[in-house]
Amino acid sequence: MTAQRLAPVEHDAAPEAQSPNVVDELRSRVTGDLLDVVVDLDSGEGCRLSDLRDGTRYLDMTMYFSSAPLGHGHPGLRTPEFEAALVRAGRVKPANPDFATMEQARFVETLRRVFGDPELPWLFFIEGGGPAVENALKVAFDWKTKHNARRGVPMRGSRAMHLRWAFHGRTGYTMSLTNTDPRKVRDYPAFDWPRIPSPAVEPGPRWDTAELLPAEREALDAAEAALTRYGNEIACFVYEPIQGEGGDRHLRPAFLREMQRLCREHHVLTVADEVQSGGGITGHPWAHQALGLEPDLVAFGKRLQVCGVMGGRRVNDIEDNAFREPSRISSTWGGSLVDMVRATRILEVIESENLLNHAARMGELLLSELRGLAAEYPDLVTAPRGRGLMAALDFPDGTLRDRVTALARQRHHTVFLPSGPRSLRWRPALSVRPDELTDAVAALRATLRELSSE
Ligand SMILES: Cc1ncc(COP(=O)(O)O)c(C=O)c1O
């Protein structure tokens, strides 16, 4: 580790003087996987970000791991009123669960209006998607134990059924659920909770048929076996409506609806982890709505800026559920007030600019572009798929995918995100423009052309 001090950032100094070794300095001190870019927070535009060191522009199809719905420099986030509200909320960080502010009230009102679900009236806020999922699980464990007691079953709800290829975070309970890249969980203590197969299929003609496919029947049989074995202990079934980190794996609505039916039959709550699929990227506020599902709990984060849980439906069967009984779930800050102010403004812009419709239309454009690319390079690119802007394609293996990703960034200044063992995912801003999507596909096409002629 070097002892050299970083110079403080002076915004009127020449950019190259401000940040010569910032990436190396950070790499030597902070855990992470830093790109070789120093983001210029003042001069990005839409899905294009600028490198503070030399002004290089990168077309970013990752948008900070799917967490910046309006991209850079959106005029709606540049108003004097918004900037004053940010500063006011930033001077001190209140403990939101215990001290009311007008800012928190305005956030809750806006969230309920733009993305709210009347069937899920309870809200809980916390920082981080993993902690959001953890607290959804805690609500379910609390519920199941009380529900069992009401039925004369002296047993704690202490297990969470989940899917193969799930990613729910890297915190305490979620370590027992996450099973994508083994490095993320290897050797950490975990609970032995029931894991069932994840029968993902490519969206296509069979997508909306009600008849179950053989792999879906197999997964349902595995779920039924687990419910028969541990039914009174299983508090919830937790699922990503579209498995993001596992490789953009789409589960058919017919399968997930059947899982929901089975869980209801066995007194088990359903928890949709919408940390990645929620917040409008599918062209709907929540992916579970696009799939016609009715979860009891929804965990959210990323694009919403504030992470947390929405709850209702069967949770309400227990009057003193964990949303209502004091001290069952809480944290000091309960989300950050600055994030709430930013989230409020972003939600207002999503509403006033009709960005859900826009995301759905841009998703169609993107999918047709990705299909075109797959037709041109059938040996290299397969399985173009997407719901709204949550889109992906596959490469024959992870090595090629990683090489394409690196070359697209180095040669064409276009940034993509890997997903699962061999997929490339698209997570642009909801406000993405058609030219940004077509330019990014053109960069991918140019990279493939160069690789094919090597
Ligand atoms: C579906 C899902 N759940 C949970 C998480 C964890 O969120 P965080 O990284 O904010 O803890 C993620 C992060 O990618 C996710 O995609």
UniProtKB/TrEMBL annotation:
MF-aspect GO terms: L-lysine 6-transaminase activity; pyridoxal phosphate binding
Cofactors demanded by this protein: pyridoxal 5'-phosphate
Gene Ontology biological-process annotations: antibiotic biosynthetic process; gamma-aminobutyric acid catabolic process
NCBIfam families (UniProt xref): LAT_fam
Organism phylogeny: Bacteria, Bacillati, Actinomycetota, Actinomycetes, Actinopolysporales
UniProt cross-references to SUPFAM superfamilies, sorted A to Z: PLP-dependent transferases
Region (Disordered): 1-20
Keyword Transferase: yes
Family, per entry: Belongs to the class-III pyridoxal-phosphate-dependent aminotransferase family.
Protein name listed in UniProt: L-lysine-epsilon aminotransferase
Keywords from the UniProt entry: Aminotransferase, Pyridoxal phosphate, Transferase
EC annotation from Swiss-Prot or TrEMBL: 2.6.1.36
Class in the EC hierarchy, top level: transferase
